[in-house]
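ok so i was messing around last nite and threw this chain in just to see what happens. nothing serious, just curious
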Amino acid sequence: MGLLIRMGAVDRDIAVAMWASIASSNWEEMLPYTAIARRRLGDALWENFEYLVVLSRAWMASHPHGMYPKDVPRLEIPDAWLDADTRYEASRLPSA
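result:
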């Protein structure tokens, strides 16, 4: 995907809006192997994927709350576990 963006075949904004989080988390999961493999193969290994991740992280930094339109109401999401989770967290606090 990074190559397609770099070559202009895929719109960068659309690609990172769709894949930023996934690309960034996959890069993190691959880091241990990437470090070892790049010892022998050099920085060119997965350079296009790295490019996508750099673009993705910049996009996430500039859109920390996503891109949901401000003038469109959000759906209500019932949180059935909120009370139980709140009680659990309170039970884990050290006693005063």
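not much to say yet. The chain is about 65% helix and 0% strand.
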